[in-house]
Write a structure and sequence with these properties.
With 152 residues, this protein is of the alpha+beta class. The protein has one domain. The chain has 2 helices and 10 strands, in the order E-E-E-E-H-E-E-E-E-E-H-E. The strands form 2 sheets. The chain has an 8-stranded mixed beta sheet with strand order 6-5-4-10-1-2-3-7. A hairpin with a 7-residue loop joins strand 5 and strand 6. The longest helix has 17 residues. The two termini are 24 Å apart. The model has no long low-confidence stretch (mean pLDDT 93).
Amino acid sequence: MNEKQRINIIRVAQGKNSTLSHLYIGGLFCCYLLEDSIRKEKIQGLTCIPEGEYRLRLNPWAGMNAQYGVKYPKVHRGMLEITGIPNFDLVFIHIGNYHTQTAGCPLTGSYWQRLDGDYQVLHSAAAYKYVYPLLVGEMEKGNNRIVVENRV
């Protein structure tokens, strides 16, 4: 896959219990992401997904789907799920502000701040409404791979 088509999560900063990342589509910055800590050993609900290349798909049957269908009825077609992650399942790109809301999922944000040694993202819903159709559009073009890299 060439760089112009690539979807990347680039981890750029680490807090005590959180990791701040950037989401790029085709080399363009789209939003911030908040994840749990990077750990060598997975701890259920407290570890971000490991570096690697994974697949994106729309998941219209998971529990969060009904809630997002009501919140975003004009655009929602299923949760943005990252699949093929060893020891992880039902990993969604979704809204939230604090590492305590991630449970291993990337949370979208328009801005970030660091308080008490941890990162949080702000204006999460606005970022989600922006990146959701972009990612769905990429998947419709056959670009359903996402690459996760640690740069911290």
